[in-house]
Every structure is written in structure tokens, then in C-alpha cells.
Amino acid sequence: MWENQFKETVNHLRAKHLLRRLTAIDSVSSASVTIHGEKRLSFCSNNYLGLANHPKLKAAAIEAVQIWGVGTGASRLVSGNIRLYGALEEKIAAMKSCEKALVFNSGYTANVGILSALIKENDLVLFDRLNHASLIDGVKLSCSAASAGGKLRVYRHKDMKQLQLLLSQRPAHQKAMIVTDGIFSMDGDIAPLAEIVALADQYDAIIYLDDAHATGVLGPTGKGTSEHFHLHSDRIIQMGTLSKALGGFGGFVAGSDLLISYLINKARSLLYTTALPPSVLATAIAALALTEEEPVHREKLWINTNHFRKDVMALGYNTCGSETPIVPLLIGEADVAVTFSKRLMEEGIYIPAIRPPTVKNGQSRLRVTLMATHTKEQVDVLILKLKEIGSQLGVI
Q1: Hey, which of 64, 290, 336, 345 would disulfide with 282, CB 3.0 to 4.6 Å?
Q2: How many domains, the chain?
Q3: Is the distance from CB of 82 to CB of 289 less than 8 angstroms?
Q4: What is the greatest pairwise CA distance in the chain?
Q5: 154-208 pLDDT tens trace
Q6: In this structure, which long-range contacts are made by residues 260-264, counting pairs with CB atoms below 8 Å and at least 24 apart in sequence?
Q7: Which residues pair with 330 in a beta bridge?
Q8: b/e per residue, 219-251, with b = 16+ CB within 10 A?
């Protein structure tokens, strides 16, 4: 019976060009990957600053293994809270201009654990329609319980008029939380945080800001969306990851001392999981130091981003309003996107097709992500192949 269910689902996905498979990566360099023994340019990694291969991060990881070993052996509340955690959390709090920070095992577990701990019965949750999957899961987990769930209202993407209407209609006694990405992971655009903060001030709401793709990328010094808008508000709870621009692994939240104390006691995804390996913590500390000491990585990232976006828009691609190193190329139907991806692979370029349910039907795309370590010549090769294949498939 179970096997029949699995077979039916797999066959259905295959027929719709939606069946996913794992691609084995043989090796990774700063801007390319080796697949089945052949090197291909990679334009699909979230390693925006190219730090995942940086010698200083590798050295920090090796030193941590030599000093601390390869694992912590227990949750943070038992015996896994090694001193590297404190050093890392101090650096995160300073970067985010907050009193305290708390590190989780991943961005996903951070969102699920934090949101389920914060949202209580009858709280109003206002949610941007294009928020990331882990935010969706965290909010659904919090709002689904019949007896204790919050009230979820989804507003149109970046629609501040609808957000204001929803806030204005809530009862005076009801707590409200606005949940938004800083950079939206599929379209690459930026949340209108200044307007969101103004509404939060007006209607006494708090803001849960997922800065996963913005940390290390946005702002004059890479501190994220708040710095990008020159904002500081105690209403903002800042979540982020150590696994994208910072090149390593893990998630975090930054806010008040009281918030962090509360989450240490109530966030189940922190309480009931083994602490991160020492090498991961040491790598993150080194990455944060590097973003301060060597701004050239972020500067190069934006040079590549602006060059690529300008040229592909001139070719006629719809980039979905991208403002960041995430530059989607809207294709449309899933089968065309898959064909486009395969053609690029044949030309030595690795960009998997993004298809439903990650995006809506008819919104399949190639999600191009630029890195600081891409050379201009590599970016130009991609642009040339996008022109050739896009024309042949009738996409442009």
C-alpha cells in the first residue's frame, strides 16, 4: 500500500517535470563545481562572498578541531555550550547592534523554534506572501493548533496599504507581529523595511525580520537590511544565518537580553538538539571578522551583480524586480525551465531550474546567484549562453 502511494506520487511529479533528484558534487572551488568529473561554472550558490573556500576560515576550522575535537556531545543546556558560542554570539550582537544574540543549528531550526515560541493564542501574525519556506513552516506550526494558535493573515507581496489595513482592523488588545524576509529568496528584491517600521510604530506591532540573504550583503558594512535603510528599531527581532554570505553553517537571532533569555527556555529547536561542532562556530567567528577587515569581497559581489543584471535585462529577461545578487530569470513553464537548465549544463554552467511548489505554477525560473569570486570573464560567459539558449528556446 505504501509503495503504491510512493510510486503514484513519483510518477505524477515526473509527468509534470517536477521530480527532483540530488546532484552529486565531486568538488567545489570558489566559483565552480565538479560534477561527474567535469568542471562547471556554478551560478546557484548562496556563498555570496566566496568565504566557504577562504583560507582563513579553513584554518579556523582546523584549529578548532585540534583544540576542541569534532563534536560537542550534548545540547547547549547540558554540556555542549562551549566558549566559542559566547564569542560568536557577542560578535553577532555587535554586528546587528543588539543587546544579545543566540545561535541555532540552522536558519530553518531558528525560524521554526523562535516563531513557535513567540506566537501565542490570539496573536495576529501578518505575513508577506513571498516569505521563505522556513518562515512559512514556523508560522504554520505556531498558528495551526486549534487551542493555542495565533491568527495568520497573509498580505500581498510588499503591499503596505494592505498591511496597514490589516493592522488597523485588529482589536486594540491583540498583539501583532509582522513577519518578513529582508531579501526575498526567489525574487531577489528587498522588503520595504522603513515603511514596515513606521507601521509597526503606528500600530504597536513587532517585526520578525529574516535577514538570511541580507547578512553580509546589504548595507555599507554588510550588517543587513536595517543598515541598508539606516534604521535602528527595538521593535525588530533580527534572524539570520551563518551559512550564506558568511560561508559556514548555523542560524541566529539577535534582540534584547530579555528576548534571548526567553528563547533559551522556550525554543524547542534549541533545547532538544546537539550543539554545533566547534569547527562550525570557529568558522563563523572568522567569517565575521573577515567581513569587517576585507570589504573588498562585498564590493566585488556588487560589481558582478550590477553588471550581470544590467546585461540580462538588456537581453529582455524578466528579473522579477531583483535588487540583489539573487537574480531570477523568469522562464514560465517547468518543462522549459528544466530544458534550459540542461542546455546550460551541456555548456558547462550549473544552474538548476526552480519549479513548483517552490514557486507558483507558470513562475518557473533560473535563479542566478552571483558571488564575489566570479570573474568578469565567467559572468560574461554566462550572459553569452543565456543569450544563445534563451533565443533558441523562445524565452527572449
Answers
A1: 64
A2: 2
A3: no
A4: 62
A5: 999 999 999 999 999 999 889 999 999 999 999 999 999 999 999 999 999 999 9
A6: 260/99, 260/100, 260/101, 260/102, 262/117, 263/102, 263/113, 263/114, 263/117, 264/77, 264/102
A7: 365
A8: beebbbbbbbbeeebebbbbbbbbbbbbbbbbb
SS3 for 203? helix
Catalytic residues: 185, 213, 244
C-alpha span between 355 and 20 (Å, rounded):
9
CATH code, domain with 366: 3.90.1150.10
Q: Look-up: residue for cell 528556446?
A: 393
Q: By C-alpha distance, which of 43, 21, 48 is closest to 32?
A: 43
- Provide the grid cell at 394: 523562445
Residues 75 and 135 in one domain: yes
CA dist 47 and 205 (Å) reads 33
Q: Does residue 69 carry a pLDDT above 60?
A: yes
Is 116:123 a contact under the CB 8 Å cutoff? Answer: no
Report CA torsion sign: 377, 292, 184, 107.
positive
